[in-house]
# Entry
Amino acid sequence: MAPGARFTITTPIYYVNDRPHIGHVFTTTLVDVAARAHRLRGEEVFFLTGTDEHAGKVSDAARERGLTPLEWADINAGTYRETFAAYGITHDDFIRTSEARHVERVQHYVRQLLESGDLYLGDYEGWYDPGEEEYVPDSRAAEHGYKSPISGRPLVRREERNYFFRLSAYGGFLLELLERRPGFVQPDARRNEVIGRIRQGLLDVPASRTGSAGWGIPFPGDPEHTVYVWIDALFNYLSAVDTDERRHLWPADVHLIGKDILWFHAVIWPAVLEALRRIPGNEWIGLPGRIQAHGFWIREGQKMSKSLGNFIELETLDEHVARFGLDALRWFLVTQGPLGAHDCDFAEARFAEVYNADLANTLGNCASRVANMTARYAGGRLAAPGAHPAAGELETAAGEALARFQQALERFALADCAQAGMDLVRAVDALIEKTRPFRLARDAARLPEVGAILYDCAEALRVASLLLWPVLPRAGEELWARLGRPEYAEALAKRGRGRLEAWAAWGGLEPGAPFAKGEALFPRYAG
Ligand code: MSP
# Structure
């Protein structure tokens, strides 16, 4: 993507009743890594996150505490904001569904969809999953023995008079979309799952609720109803950008979600958007680029849950940050986490193992090795590039690493982006092993070669630090300072934009510039 391009990415908006845990930090960190990578490339990035506030549980919890629902939501939304600040998250906006800007837009969309006939008042009877607050089609209910396909709890027969969204009219549209744009829902396993379920038939879905005791968005023209929380929540993606200054940021390039909320994002949301788009004046409302669904963190093979008491809470993550640093947590989440179709176990021992292998023994060690040799054999300053037994090798490796990073980013393969940078560091280590500058340095006549080797090593480390920065911002910026390139950090501060292609061009370091030794970037963890 060329500089001047734009990139819009969202997290789900989080239930304001919950306390932040690994699921929230994971999804938000992945989006943060992608947002930083696109800013580094010079794009105009819009990274949206926020809170989903209108669930019935919020007013219940508030009542128990003698608070209004909004007072309770204010407290918890504040906790999310503080958590994200502490975890280095660089969102551009934080939307709350209780905000006037959202409520006003949702009512506007609902009015439009009532007029187009995509929303209608109807009676419905069917199998209802109370935990998920959704109806389950008859065939699927039967297939799961009339138990929730998600929680396994019994489904209940329920009848209600509600407003419905005419999802059943969009089956053909959705199947054609999934066919025409195979990348629309990713990974492929999730796409196939969605296609299979659409083929089983689509039911219209509720778009309103009654009895929500004043908490929720009043349904236009029928104040006994409120907008169903899921419809309300999905609209956040649009309401946040539906202003004159921001409409150009739509459509979102990526909605990152967990696989548990796939149906709402891969089926209901595109159908709602398409219904809106067909209304004259709404031509700007295109479909998102991709719905990227990640898997789940589990523990010792089991789903994390409050009742099992095996949830990784924020306190556990805080402890890891205190012990290993925030970069280390980000590295672990991105390289070991369930980005793809599979779930991943959060194993304590693995954390330290990955930290030592990648961060302490590879990146940290390589940086101090090159800085130390530069101090010892070149007076602490970079020598001139030039001929040596492996000349050109790191330049080639750096070019390949950049290309790999760029391609991986297009696929949202964030772990591969990270490994592109780390493999370049590994190439530096391999080159040192191969050329043995510490051995060559015994012969004074070969010192220019030693200097040239070390120049290449420092230069490759500089390129690697750029590619690693989205995941390891602290270490990246520290290396830039040591290598005399503070301007990268300055350009990227406060959500600024970088110039990755230009910065990663080989030969950016000036001969004669110092390579400061500094403290160990990642001290080895001994347990
Ligand atoms: N409010 C809805 C989303 C509405 S979006 C229009 C919601 N909120 S949530 O707070 O429950 O979950 C947010 C995200 O956390 C989801 O993407 C979910 O997949 C993720 N995770 C929750 N637990 C998780 C793990 N154990 N592992 C990884 N991610 C998980 O859903």
Remarks:
- The chain has a mean pLDDT of 95.
- The two ends are 43 Å apart (CA to CA).
- The longest strand covers residues 119-129.
